[in-house]
Amino acid sequence: MKKSAEIKRNTFSLIAKNLIILVVLAVVAFVGAFSWFTQHTKATADGINAMTKANDKLEFYIMPPSDSDQYAAINQRLRDNATWNSQHSSETPKRTEWHRGNLAFDFSDQEFKFMDGLFMSEVTGDGASFKIPKLMQYNNVAYIDSTQAFENAVANDNYMSFDLYFRSQSNYSIALTNESTIEPVDTADALSGQHDYTGDAQEASMKPGAIGAVRMSILNCEANNERELLWIPAPNVWYNGLTDHLYTGLTASGSGNYSFSDKGSAYYDESDTTKLKLTTEGTTTHAFYSANNANRTTWANGTYNVIASTAGDYRLGSDSSDDVTVVTLQNQDNDYRYGHIRVNLWIEGEDAEARLRLVNGKFNMSLYFDIKDTVQATESGS
Length: 382
Fold this sequence. Notes:
The chain is mainly β. It has one domain. The chain contains 4 helices and 27 strands.
């Protein structure tokens, strides 16, 4: 079995475009004085919309996250529930199979029901494991109570998580492509260009800034759940929790409040209880708490598989050189090769934009997967 690092070093031949598309609409609403964000945004069919698209070279299926290989369980479910996929349509019932072509996520269907109780609530994590710290408050800024133990966050209660299975009769590697986006819903224009929003009068324009706290990760379940990607889609926005200003249009070459550098979260200074301060890391850095002793960890863009979308367009990258290989179909079952990944979507509570002022921010997640032919690459010695 090849390690993912070895897979990334290989050169694969691209044979199809836009084979799988996942489109997710997530509603983010922050409430409560002592929390980073709400526990009351239910992800029903009205809160999350998703669809997939694939050509005939690849089949796919969605399952709840599990440490066990669920490939056999998928096939057993399809045999036992041959018609459930068309129970809610006017079509003639037909045998349900692995998905091809277009598929809309429907939380009333068995495949997706494990996500219908999702609440986006306060979590912090490295993209693979997530915790819920106990919080204190000072001048409307929440901070970690380091004297109390963290709770374990629950998948599809506190954050979204699903396993995406792929199968084919060929040995493909699969990449998340640069076209993938995580972006505000219907309000992208409000966050385009350099703007300074503040106060109650501009609160509606500030709310889309919640996208700055959104994170997505992909774990390679065929390589011991190795994290292949931790994505920061919107480092171009920054909320200054000390002054209640939201700045948009941050760039690497910017200056003052419009650069990526030195734009951290507000925190409580225990050495001076009359002051709040800002952490010094930039918006392209992923900050999180990694242990019950409130050990704060930071990973900069380009380290630990962190990718920050610095172009301001909420895309994973600008061209195919930015595609991220996430899994290879290396398992064998009769005539099929199969494999799977885990997709995690969460609001990072330690980020500057996970604050009360940005209640009701909304965002879309569109993931585009492509396939690459590993057999040809191996035979050619590339």
